Amino acid sequence: MNGIDDILQRQRCFFAGDFAPRTVAGRLDSLKRLKAAILAHTAEIEDALWKDLRKSPYETYVTEVGMAIEEIDGCLKRLGRWAKPERVASPVMLFPSRSRIVREPYGLVLIIAPWNYPFQLLMTPLISAVAAGNVVAVKPSEYAAHTAKVVGTVIREAFDERHVSVFEGGADVSTALLKQRFDYIFFTGSARVGRIVMAAAATHLTPVTLELGGKSPCIVDASAHIAVAAQRIVWGKLLNAGQTCVAPDYLLVHTSVKTALIEEMIRCIRLFYGEEARLSPDYPRLVSTATADRLASLLEGATILYGGTVDREERYIEPTLLDVASLDCPLMREEIFGPLLPVCGISSVDEAVAYINSRPKPLALYYFGDTKRGRDVIRRTSSGGACINDTVLHIVNPALPFGGVGESGMGSYHGRAGFETFSHRRSVLVSATWIDIKLKYPPYRNKLKWMKRLW
Ligand code: NAD
Fold first, then answer.
1. Which atom of ligand 1 is nearest to the CA of 404?
2. How far, in Å, is the centroid of ligand 1 from the Cα of 327?
């Protein structure tokens, strides 16, 4: 595709040549420039996210701009420590030598971003890639077009194009990019496209991180604090109108507390967004009418406990609770990625664990109830991340790596994990020359018994 070849070639040359951000000081300068550009364009970012997803300025700050700024601040504070070569012990048979692990940048990195948190999910990996000293090509999602534009403005203001380049456009642009040779690919999006990305990366043996999605379960046990659980579940589910990769996808609720939980969740929805969520300035819209159609089709034949109003043209679906009698229904097949929450009664936590373990590994798992029991659930299941008595918040702690496992992805980032993801751990052995022990050289006659003693 026009231009891609040239730009990437210039980036490769820049990296191979006089690339100032190779040093830690250079990287810190780049990150400071990025922070300044983000802060200078915050109003435009807010405006773009309002137009793309009708996100409130509050939600935009907390889940998009604020997270990016925090990621930069964390790097500014800790990068010097992370980037230091790590001395490790050398066994006696390697005497006289010293060993260290050096974190070096991969080189040219590709980041492909989705539309649901279109600013943060592009900026956060970009910050880690720059902190690790790479040159980067980014591809924002075409479905959040206003945000893609302002992302381009911010990046062009902060970086030389040979350091960070932006490729706006649709799947055709991703496809053209994926034909090129990169040194690392970081993809966030669906498992379907994740497979395409991984297959393309395999052609060049390029390592990948895949940040995917899936159906994240939420168990509510009989021992749960129902009022707190309802509040935290409704908040985590309706953030960005349910278009959050770590949103609770469905609830498995102990039958003894199911009615109480549903009543309490309905109370919370009204408390957060009023009688009519459509009128709330805090309730976002779906990304497209196609998404509204997909979600509306899931409502057909479903038992609606609350909500259910659809306004296709406005890309609006009311916060909706659904009763699920059988775990085989269409609602339980694919990731919902919208404001519909299926609620299914279970007779025991063991039943929930068995069901979860029969499904692909999710990106997140939530448990509400007794903490000890929650730890046991975590021990008996697998997921990218998890919370006991909360939802979503594990991704906010920069000290916790964020990523999936199995069908929900591979690799992780945020904070140090992000820096490590975009760095190659290079093993370096430095041998002294003042002595050269002959034990390792042929002829080996009579040397084996000595070697065995040392090994
Ligand atoms: P998507 O997979 O449709 O698109 C993601 C990106 O891939 C976009 O930039 C798009 O242009 C590009 N793309 C689309 N088709 C392509 C193709 N054939 N070849 C190459 N690139 C292509 O995902 P989406 O709809 O933007 O996002 C929703 C999905 O992403 C959900 O499954 C969600 O759970 C997941 N997600 C995961 C995370 C995470 O951090 N793990 C975060 C957000 C979203």
1. 41
2. 26
For the annotated catalytic residues, the residue numbers are 211, 245
pLDDT at residue 94 is higher than 70? yes
- How many C-alpha atoms does 424 have within 13 Å on its Cβ side? 14
CB 27 within 8 A of CB 19: no
Q: Which atom of ligand 1 is nearest to the CA of 194?
A: 2
CA torsion sign for 288, 289, 295, 298 is negative
**Which DSSP letter does residue 287 get?**
S
Ligand 1 site, CB within 6 A: 112-116, 121, 139, 141-142, 170-171, 174-175, 178, 188-190, 193, 196, 211-213, 245, 335, 337, 363, 404, 409
Q: How far, in Å, CA of 397 to CA of 420, rounded?
A: 17
Cα–Cα–Cα angle for 323, 327, 332, nearest 5°?
80
Q: pLDDT tens digits for 398-438?
A: 999 999 999 999 999 999 999 999 999 999 999 999 999 99
Token pair for residue 93?
A: 């048979």
Atom of ligand 1 nearest to the CA of 139: 9
Please enumerate in sequence order all residues whose Cβ is within 8 A of that of 9, keeping only pairs 6 or more positions apart, or say none. Answer: none
Please give the domain boundaries of the chain with CATH numbers for all domains.
Answer: 2-212+409-427 (3.40.605.10), 217-403 (3.40.309.10)
pLDDT digits (tens, 9 = 90+) for 354-376: 999 999 999 999 999 999 999 99
- Report the mean per-residue pLDDT for the chain: 96
In the chain, the amino acid numbered 248 is P
